[in-house]
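hey m, so remember when u said the C-alpha cells were messed up on ur end? i reran from scratch. heres the input so u can diff it against urs
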Amino acid sequence: MARFILINTSHAGNVGAAARALKVMGFDEMVLVAPRWANVLRREETIQRASGANDVLDKTRIVDTLDEALDGVDHLCATAMTARDFGPPTYAPRAYFELLQKRELLPRYSIGLEADLVHKTVPAQPAEQPHALPAAPRMAFLFGSERFGMSNEDVYRCHAALSIPTNPQFGSLNLASAVQLVAYEWRQALGGFALPLSDRPAALADAQAVGGLLAHWEQALVHLGYLDPAAPKKLMPRLNALLNRAQLREEEIHILRGVAKTLLQSTPPVHARRNSD
C-alpha cells in the first residue's frame, strides 16, 4: 500500500519512533537506506522508541542505495521543507492526496485496517465496468537525513514533493514527527479508522425519572426556604425545561437526587430555624 523510506538516518531513536508512527496508522513497510548504524534495528534506543512496534522493526529492510529501496514502486513522494528550483511540484500532503483522489489514483480500499487485511488476502474481483480504471500506483514516501534533508538528486526523481505546513518562523520537524504526519494524512486519504465506540451507550433518563427528580428537588427547595409552596411562580416549570434541555442520563439523575436527599437530611427545615431564632 505504501512504503516509507528513510535515507541516511543518523539517530537510532528516530528509526524506532518512525516504526511506532507507522504502526499506529496501520502501516508496516519501512526501508532504511544507508543508515549511520548498520545494527540500528537492534540498538537499545531504537527498540525503546518503537514502544511495542517491534513487528515493524522486524520487517524493516536495510539497503545500500535508493534504487534498491524503490524496487517495485512507481509513484514517489519526496518530503522537503522548501521547493527545489527544478524539482517536482510541491504540495501539502492533504492537498496532494486529494488531487490523487480526483484523478482516481488512490487504492480502491475500504475504510480501515480491516479492509487493508482483506485487500491483502482476498483475490481481486473482475471489474464490472466495461472500461476498468487504471491500477492504483504503488506509493513510496521518502524522508531525508535529520541534518541535511533530501538531496536535490533524490528529490528530482519524485513525482511530487510534500511539504508539511508549519510555523513560518520555525518549520523544522523531527524526522519521526514528519513520518507520523505523512502517515496520518495517507491513512485519512485511504478512508481512515473509525473512532472506537463505548461498549454500551449511556441511556437517557425517561420522563418518569425526570419527574421524580423534580419532585425530590421541589421538596428540598421548600425545605430550604428557597421555594414558597404558596407562591411557587414559574420556578418548577423552568427547572423542568432546564432538565429537558440537559438530556440527563440515568446515573446523573441518581447524583442529583442524592444531593437533594443530603440537603433534606443534613439541614433543618426553614420553619425550625426560624422558631429557634
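this time it looks ok to me. The radius of gyration is 31 Å. if urs says something different then somethings off w ur setup not the seq
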